[in-house]
C-alpha cells in the first residue's frame, strides 16, 4: 500500500457485513464472560480492549493506521501533542537524567522540556541544530537518555538534519525522538533517516479540520534498549506489573507497550473514541491536503523570491 492508500485503508479491516466506516466504540469498558479472561487482560497476555484509558477499538484502528504510515511497529494516541511529547520523554528519562534538544522546536515543547520536566528532575540542554556533530557530542553526559528535534520546526521552519541527530544519538547508545507534526509522513518519514521514536501533534495537519486535539507516539521498533544498559525501565522488572520486563515480553514493541500500560495507565492522557474517529476522518484526506499546502507554499516562496524587498 502507498501512503495515499494507507490513509484510507490501513488500520480498520472490516469483515463481511461489518460497517464500512470505522465505528465509534463510545464505551469506557468492555464485557467479558470469565474472570480468567479479565485476569489475562490485566496480565497483558490477552490483547483485547478492556478500559478505554488503556485501549479502545476505534483508537486502536487509528493507531495502526498511523504506525503503518510512519513505518513503525506500534503507536499510542494521546489527548494532545503535548501529552505525546511528555510521555515519549518520560518513558525513558526520569529524575537525575538529561536530554538534548534542538533549540528550534515548538514553544510548548521548549517549555515542557526546559521548565516543567526540569522541575521533575530531567535536565535539558538546548543545542543549535546546525552545529557540527563534534560540537554536539560535547553536550552528551553519562546520564543523557535521548536526543529530541523537530523535522520542520514550528514556527521557525528550521529543517532538522535527522541523520546527523540520529548519529549523535546512536554513537552514544540513546534514541532520537523526532516531532514530525509539520512534515507528516506524507512529506517525510523520519524512521528512514534514523529516528527511533516519532511524536505528532495530530491537532494540526493530521486532523486538518481544527476540530480535535490529539497527539500520537510511534515506535520504530528498531532501537536496542538492552545494548547500553541505560534503560533499566525497559529491561529490568517493572514492580507495578509484578516483575514484567518490557524488552523480554514485548520485544520490538517494548517502548510503545511501556508507554501505554505504565505511563498512560498512570498519567491518563488518553485520546477519546470520538476524537480518534475524527482524526481518522482527517487522515483520509491528508495526502490531498498536503499536496495543496505544498503547492500554495511554493507559490508564496516564488512570489517572495521575486519581491524587491526580500533578501536571501
Ligand atoms: C502544536 C504542536 C505541538 C503541541 O501539540 P498540541 O496538540 O497543541 O498539544 C507539538 N509540536 C508541534 C510541532 C506542534 O505544532
Short description:
By secondary structure, the chain is of the alpha/beta class. Helices cover 40% and strands 12% of the residues. It contains 13 helices and 7 strands.
CATH superfamily: Type I PLP-dependent aspartate aminotransferase-like (Major domain)
Main beta-sheet strand count, sense and barrel state: 7 strands, mixed
Q: What is the rounded distance between the termini?
A: 40 Å
Q: Provide the CATH topology.
A: Aspartate Aminotransferase, domain 2
Q: Indicate the CATH architecture.
A: 3-Layer(aba) Sandwich
Helix run count: 13
Low-confidence stretches: none
Kindly state the percentage of residues in helix.
40-55%
CATH top level is: Alpha Beta
Shape: globular
Q: Identify every distinct bound molecule in the structure, by name, code or SMILES.
A: pyridoxal-5'-phosphate
Number of domains: 1
Rounded average pLDDT: 97
SSE pattern, N- to C-terminal: HHHEHEHEHEHEHEEHHHHH
* Strand order in the sheet with the most strands: 1-7-6-5-4-2-3
How many whole angstroms does the radius of gyration measure?
Answer: 20 Å
Commentary on this structure:
This protein has 312 residues and is an alpha/beta fold. It has a single domain, classed as Aspartate Aminotransferase, domain 2, CATH 3.40.640. Helix content is 40%, strand content 12%. Strands 1-7-6-5-4-2-3 form a 7-stranded mixed sheet, with helices on both faces. The longest helix is centred in the last third of the chain and has 21 residues. The chain is globular and about 75 Å long. The termini are far apart. Bound molecules: pyridoxal-5'-phosphate. Pyridoxal-5'-phosphate binds next to helix 4 and helix 5.
